Amino acid sequence: MTSDRTGKHVWIVGGGIAGMAAAAFAIRDAGLPGGNVHILEELGVTGGSMDGATSPTAAGAFVTRGGRMLEEKAYRCTWDLFGTVPSLEDPGTTVRQEIIDFNQRVRTEARARLIDADHRVLDATDYGFSLRDRADLSRLIVTPEGLLGSRRIDEFFTEHFFTTNFWRMWRTTFAFQKWHSAAELRRYFLRFLHVFDHLDTLSDVRRTVYNQYDSMIVPLQRWLVDQGVDVRFGTSVTDVDLVDEPGRGRRITGLHLVTGDGSEHLALGADDYALVTIGSITADARYGGADSVPTLVRDRQDNGWSLWERIAAKGPDLGRPMTFYGGVDEHKWESFTLTMHDDTLIRRIAEYSGNEPGTGALMTWVDSGWHLSVVVPHQPHFPGMPKDTYTLWGYGFEVDEKGDHVPERLADATGTQIVTELIGQLGFDDILDHVLETTDVTSVMMPYASALFACRKPGDRPKVVPDRSRNFALLGQFTELDEDVVFTVEYSIHGAMHAIYTLLGVDRTIPPIYHGILDPATALRATKTLLR
Fold this sequence. Notes:
- β3 and β4 (62-63) form a beta hairpin.
- By secondary structure, the chain is an alpha/beta fold.
- The chain is built from 15 helices and 19 strands.
- The chain has a domain at 114-203.
């Protein structure tokens, strides 16, 4: 790292966790003054897909579109970053230490991971493998990724595998469908091999004190602002000027912006860098309430994909966004957040599941038409929540199937119908009327929620730092990081670290990817798990 960084400026497109992490690394590790780091964010809030907010459909209600699993061993770049960010409520403690302390007090040990149509909690320790399942899973793990190409998961397994408890838990923990990428599933198996033997309890999951927006994004934003970072909300980047200089390489020389004052052009100087977030799993998300249904947007109305399309047109190595946004019906899901104004439902769930709020994991109804799952977080899940207010979050994988207790597809169900279906799956019909009277529900339709798992081939995802790049990098879940896994906070932060360290010549080692298969004890436990 050179000693003089005062003349360099970094322009970051997108204020999600990838962009925020890049800003932090530019300051902390590359030595840039905070005022030389600029974040251009289309919305009025940072955090991107790591959100948590008041509901747009009901006063006094809350909503999160999704949640991210944090894990101790695999999230090395995440812990590296948040090991230096002060926590939300105690500036003397880092976010990392706060999470460690919280999880020592509130331990995850799910006791009701899988539930059948008769409301019975299944024995999730029985993974249900056949000899063929074990052989097929092992074959996928040992097949080099280069030989997998764009093959689907269901090309590697018989139908029996998809009825096993292992798959039922794996798919809902990590959001896989059987038509998703076999290459990505293989990466997940290798990356989370150490999770195999306690997939039924998810005791390795690390939770935050509040939702991840308030516990991770807000503290990071405060730290960035304290460093003097220039955050510009309401600023959309619609295109970039990419120049190829023969013999020297490629540079982004300008950004095309749209702000509240209209269109403008931002020229980049010789010492300026551009880091651009591409794609979005929460683009075009739409909300529904108690009596309304969220709209499914199919025509990419948000700017989340159009910028990548324009960048991709400037070079054959800059990715193929159509691979990921082109299959809405394969990648959409619908989530919902219940805001309960007394503890009737949350207490019944605790008694039924054997888990106090925050100590369980996803509860999945394996026979439900919507393939319904819910999780009850530690309460309060939002700072400053009113007394006697509680939340839970859930989602459905099969949004085009009808419910078992309401005659609607999940995609056509109102919030009231979603609550009715959930109460029916739980077998709590005696409290249905009370829960409906005391609960607000916010549903969210996301057309691209699992688009990052789309079957892909080499080149569909561009490198974080493309070949011959002199001053630009690409960020987010749709870039290529060898061996790492998408749909994780770690992937976004890892990519941001790689981008800053490469472009600005940071002399610091990026934490290596954890490979459980290289740990004999982990490999042995995983082998024993396959024999269950």
